[in-house]
Write a structure and sequence with these properties.
The chain is α/β, with parallel strands linked by helices. The chain is 34% helix and 18% strand. It folds into four domains: 200 residues, no CATH class; 104 residues, no CATH class; 211 residues, Rossmann fold, CATH 3.40.50; 45 residues, no CATH class. Helix 2 packs parallel to helix 4, helix 4 packs across helix 6 and helix 14 packs parallel to helix 15.
């Protein structure tokens, strides 16, 4: 009976302490794409990711019912740093879903404005609010509706302590008239959360505990272990604790000495424990995760550092190592001699014919692409031809009306056969993730292998110059670059053997591979030079190349390729590619293939479109 009354009392108090509106909830996942478009359209940093914010302790005074219920100690507050814009995972602050949705867009607009260095949190938010309203007057009405809703939900000043009352009045005035308040009055407690403002980013120690990438020029040491990744929606809070010495295990005690199951016990759980398959689920239920450093290998890790195989089993190195620079986006400069390109051939690459399963498709593609050997184009401004060039005739007519020296030649156009002048370099991602299964019969690497074979069969039929390379990496000193087919090579069973011998490698240091491919493609004399990048994921490596660093370096390499007159284009099977590829390649510089099994056919149709021809 006592337990039943307690549960009823808890539900009653918690319900009355709640000041949110669950029926009007808007989830970040439902508006992320629209927020990203608006954020970048307003001039926001295109490289920022939008992710859910971790609820944090705000320390502000709460309503008396909330204190009794023990709720509302934490709040998911919006903030940003150099890599991420953090927004609440869901919003149910206001009575209408429209207002909660408007708050997401307002916070994105606020984040698109760069604050002034040296200002505190209070004045920075007023400055950014004024900047948004001045630049985009159309947001003024939305902002006023949000301010009215925010003021209505906040604890009234008369219900706060003297210090809290002064703070609350200043915040209300700053929301109502941005820029009117010079400073926030001092108080022992922080003010109530202001959901219309951005909060300071987490300090460096907290970000390091949360697993965030911190600027470090040294490669991070990562040891072996079976890697698993939790599909978490937000960052966890963490605390740094001392590592137990390993000598204090769990001892037998008398049950009468255990006062409560909730009592904390610092148990020395050694790192060599067996892998816990349910570790991610258990971690999701924890508010705070305690972390400590030791030098021992653990059963489970987020990533694993793969040792290179011995020379006896490794792929075959070739001569001609190349040292390349790398772009450091934090320092805003190119770092010289950072990456080493190591040319290689797949081991066991014996000459092989085209697999029987692909021969029928290859025969059909060869027939279609053979028709592209010569293309028909219109030659304008000809002295004679098959029909009048209307554009030239209009220019001639205007010239006669305005001057006395109109050119009587070049008034025709003619349809003539011309030879194709195209050079294409195909760069295939051979990273570890390509070992993932596509279906019961194929892995990603098998799909890539079939794609390269059918692409070669088709382009050999039409006579276009092309080359095939693959890449994977293990830190910057090991960017392995596989020579599958060079431009000067004839497509024979030897090349087919190279392609069929490819296998999953290591990681994806894409910037270095693109730079080296650009150097190769620039040496080709052709009217159109196309670089096709075939990948299944975003740039990453074991060291600081993970995250924003790798994305920015890849983007820089793509911009360099475009400045050289090359046409880089990405084909990916990563379903999350829409989050980062527009920033890397531009809105029309990539395509996502939803069904990996259709990749070979999609690629060939795409090639025909990119080269301005038709498959017939």
């Amino acid at each position: 009976m006592e337990e039943a009354v307690g549960k009823y009392w808890h539900r009653l108090i918690t319900r009355h302490a709640e000041n949110n509106y669950p029926q009007a909830t808007v989830h970040l996942a439902d508006v992320t794409k629209r927020i990203a478009i608006m954020f970048r359209a307003l001039g926001g940093d295109g490289g920022l990711k939008i992710e859910a914010a971790t609820p944090r302790d705000h320390g502000a005074q709460r309503h008396w019912l909330q204190r009794i219920a023990g709720s509302h100690k934490k709040a998911a507050l919006a903030w940003r740093d150099g890599e991420t814009l953090r927004l609440p995972e869901k919003l149910s602050l206001y009575a209408s879903a429209e207002l909660n949705r408007d708050l997401y867009f307002w916070l994105a607009a606020l984040a698109a404005v760069d604050g002034v260095e040296g200002r505190d949190w209070f004045s920075t938010n007023q400055y950014c609010t004024l900047a948004v309203l001045q630049r985009y007057p159309g947001l003024a009405q939305r902002y006023q509706r949000l301010v009215a809703a925010e003021l209505a939900r906040r604890i009234a000043p008369e219900h706060l302590s003297d210090e809290g009352r002064a703070q609350e009045k200043a915040i209300r005035a700053a929301l109502d008239v941005p820029g009117s308040q010079a400073r926030l009055p001092a108080s022992k407690r922080p003010p109530q959360p202001v959901y219309l403002w951005l909060y300071p980013e987490l300090d460096i120690d907290t970000r390091r505990q949360e697993g965030r990438d911190i600027d470090n020029d040294e490669d991070e040491a990562v040891h072996e272990g079976a890697g698993k990744e939790s599909e978490q929606k937000h960052r966890y809070q963490a605390e740094q604790v001392e590592m137990p010495d390993g000598n204090d295990g769990l001892v037998t005690v008398r049950w009468e000495n255990i006062f409560s199951w909730a009592e904390y016990a610092k148990v020395d759980r050694t790192s060599e424990d067996d892998e816990d398959d349910d570790a991610a689920t258990k971690a999701a239920d924890m508010d705070v995760i305690s972390v400590a450093r030791d030098q021992k290998a653990s059963a489970s890790r987020l990533r694993l550092d793969l040792d290179l195989p011995s020379a006896e089993y490794d792929d075959i190195p070739l001569a001609g190592e190349v040292t390349l620079p790398e772009w450091d986006w934090r320092k805003g400069k190119m770092l010289a001699d950072q990456c080493i390109i190591r040319p290689m051939l797949p081991r066991d690459a014996e000459p092989k014919p085209l697999p029987q399963a692909l021969q029928r498709v290859a025969q059909r593609l060869r027939g279609q692409f053979a028709a592209l050997t010569q293309s028909r184009v219109w030659l304008r401004h000809q002295p004679d031809g098959s029909e009048v060039d209307m554009s030239a005739y209009v220019d001639h007519y205007i010239a006669r009306k305005t001057t006395q020296t109109a050119d009587e030649t070049g008034l025709y156009r003619d349809l003539r056969q011309t030879h194709r002048d195209i050079a294409t370099l195909m760069l295939a991602d051979l990273s570890l993730s390509t070992d993932a299964a596509v279906n019961n019969d194929q892995r990603v690497i098998d799909v890539i292998r079939d794609t390269l074979l059918l692409f070669s069969e088709a382009l050999s039929a039409c006579g276009d110059a092309y080359a095939l390379y693959g890449f994977s990496s293990r830190r910057r000193e090991q960017v392995r670059f596989y020579h599958l087919k060079q431009f000067e090579d004839r497509y024979t069973d030897k090349i087919r053997g190279h392609i069929q011998a490819i296998r999953p490698g290591y990681y994806t240091r894409m910037g270095a591979a693109i730079r080296h491919s650009s150097d190769i493609l620039c040496k080709q004399v052709a009217a159109k030079r196309l670089m096709l990048i075939l990948t299944d994921g975003k740039p990453n490596d074991l060291d600081k190349y993970e995250g924003r660093y790798g994305v920015e370096d890849t983007r820089k390499a793509i911009l360099e390729a475009k400045q050289l007159g090359l046409i880089p284009f990405c084909i990916t099977i990563d379903h999350k590619a829409d989050d980062y590829l527009p920033y890397l390649f531009g809105r029309n510089g990539y395509v996502v293939v939803r069904d990996p099994g259709q990749l070979p056919h999609k690629l060939l149709a795409l090639y025909a479109r990119l080269t301005g021809t038709s498959q017939g």
